[in-house]
């Protein structure tokens, strides 16, 4: 728990993914730390929930201001933990502040069902009440932004939060807890750094709900441990991109930019390009040319950690791709020992290739061909994940029909990986359930109570 950790049960060495060198050591939260954080959060919950929405909103706005005032510090530690280029890290700090401001306003709009005269001699209305203490567990690919997606609606609706960041990227979560204590009040947002065991302890503790962003395996484990408590899950992607023969001229560059943003470590990034046979070779060549201009170390950062680099190496090593285009590597001087991996285009793949079936979570695009639109949709929908997808073409009727046939929570047409606080984001199937962003996310952290009053003699 930020600022109040007891005797450390264990310590871990954190490395800089750009160099592979040690950057700091940090204590891992064990059972005493998790229990203390949840108890403090529980004690703070009644007063925080009792605040009028405008007061909570004002405090959230002050937290957003403080994050922006200290943006240089946030950017520096975010880069140290993730290796992101400065522009990416700065954009995500800005996004975090924007999300907090959005929910500070959204909670005052009151999206509850309207009350009224629904029964003879009675008046009814619906109260939306906070769940209580929310255990939030976020991944290492967007440490600050994923935290904002979860804590924004949870805090705005009157819950308190215990945040468990990923093992390799606790830095900005610790800053959030520090700045939240100064703006929201003590105990409203606490951070407990740690590993998977710390996360399991948090899920098993006296929290009222769990919000988790991470792997499908992690999500299944949380559902088992959470029992009957509310769980919101955003899991893997392995997202398809349908590229039609009449796709816009900038399609290949746009797909490669999206696939290499954050070194491809985004659940909503394109991963599997699916074409018709008539534009298959053209697409492979177009993507290869675009990828050759995107260099790890210049245009995007390294993979986050040694385990993720090993995953990339394993899947690429097992792939039976007959066509492979590899972009150059260009790590900065002195950073050659980092987890740098090049962008890749893989084509001429068997349908059961591991690069197709597994989410590589790296700057890799596979390319497959289909005989017609029906087969293209079947390939797109053939994996367990169903988070996001895109369609690229210029015939409105065709692209909208395909967008409707894609099994995904979010679909882009002639663009990709573009999101804003006003629009919901969430998955289906192996990509989990629940909603991030938009006013719809407010109900993830509330429960309705119907109140009916007798006002007549009947």
From TrEMBL:
Secretion signal span: none
Keyword hit for Hydrolase: no
Keywords: Oxidoreductase
PANTHER family reported in the protein's UniProt record: ALDEHYDE DEHYDROGENASE-RELATED
GO molecular function: oxidoreductase activity, acting on the aldehyde or oxo group of donors, NAD or NADP as acceptor
Superkingdom classification of source: Bacteria
One Pfam short name: Aldedh
Gene3D superfamilies according to UniProt: Aldehyde Dehydrogenase, Chain A, domain 1 (3.40.605.10), Aldehyde Dehydrogenase, Chain A, domain 2 (3.40.309.10)
InterPro entries: Ald_DH/histidinol_DH, Ald_DH_C, Ald_DH_N, Aldehyde_DH_dom
Protein name listed in UniProt: Gamma-aminobutyraldehyde dehydrogenase
């Amino acid at each position: 728990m930020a600022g109040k950790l007891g005797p450390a049960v264990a310590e871990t060495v954190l490395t800089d993914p750009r160099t592979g060198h040690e950057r700091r050591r940090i204590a891992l939260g064990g059972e005493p730390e998790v229990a203390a954080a949840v108890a403090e959060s529980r004690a703070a919950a009644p007063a925080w929930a009792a605040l009028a929405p405008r007061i909570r909103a004002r405090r959230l706005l002050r937290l957003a201001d403080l994050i922006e005032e200290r943006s240089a510090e946030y950017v520096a530690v975010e880069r140290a933990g993730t290796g992101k280029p400065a522009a990416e890290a700065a954009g995500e700090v800005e996004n975090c502040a924007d999300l907090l401001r959005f929910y500070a306003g959204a909670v005052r709009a009151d999206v509850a069902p309207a009350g009224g005269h629904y029964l003879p001699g009675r008046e009814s209305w619906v109260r939306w009440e906070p769940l209580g203490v929310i255990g939030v567990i976020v991944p290492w690919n967007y440490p600050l932004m994923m935290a904002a997606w979860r804590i924004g609606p949870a805090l705005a609706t009157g819950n308190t939060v215990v945040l468990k960041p990923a093992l390799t990227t606790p830095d900005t979560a610790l800053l959030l807890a520090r700045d939240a204590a100064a703006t929201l009040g003590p105990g409203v947002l606490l951070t407990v750094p740690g590993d998977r065991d710390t996360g399991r302890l948090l899920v098993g503790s006296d929290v009222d709900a769990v919000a988790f962003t991470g792997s499908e395996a992690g999500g299944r484990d949380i559902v088992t441990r959470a029992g009957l408590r509310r769980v919101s899950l955003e899991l893997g992607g392995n997202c398809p991109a349908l590229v039609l023969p009449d796709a816009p001229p900038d399609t290949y560059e746009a797909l490669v930019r999206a696939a290499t943003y954050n070194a491809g470590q985004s659940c909503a990034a394109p991963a599997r390009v699916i074409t018709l046979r008539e534009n298959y070779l053209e697409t492979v060549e177009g993507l290869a040319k675009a990828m050759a201009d995107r260099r790890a170390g210049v245009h995007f950062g390294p993979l986050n950690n040694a385990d993720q680099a090993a995953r990339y190496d394993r899947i690429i090593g097992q792939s039976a791709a007959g066509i492979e285009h590899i972009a150059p590597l260009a790590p900065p001087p002195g950073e050659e020992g980092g987890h740098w991996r090049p962008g890749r285009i893989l084509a001429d793949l068997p349908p059961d290739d591991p690069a197709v079936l597994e989410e590589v979570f790296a700057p890799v695009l596979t390319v497959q061909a289909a005989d017609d639109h029906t087969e293209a949709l079947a390939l797109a929908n053939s994996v367990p994940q169903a988070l996001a997808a895109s369609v690229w073409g210029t015939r409105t009727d065709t692209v909208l029909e395909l967008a409707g046939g894609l099994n995904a929570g979010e679909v882009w047409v002639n663009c990709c990986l573009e999101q804003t606080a006003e629009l919901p984001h969430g998955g289906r199937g192996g990509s989990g359930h629940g909603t991030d962003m938009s006013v719809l996310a407010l109900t993830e952290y509330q429960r309705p109570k119907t109140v009916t009053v007798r006002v007549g003699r009947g």
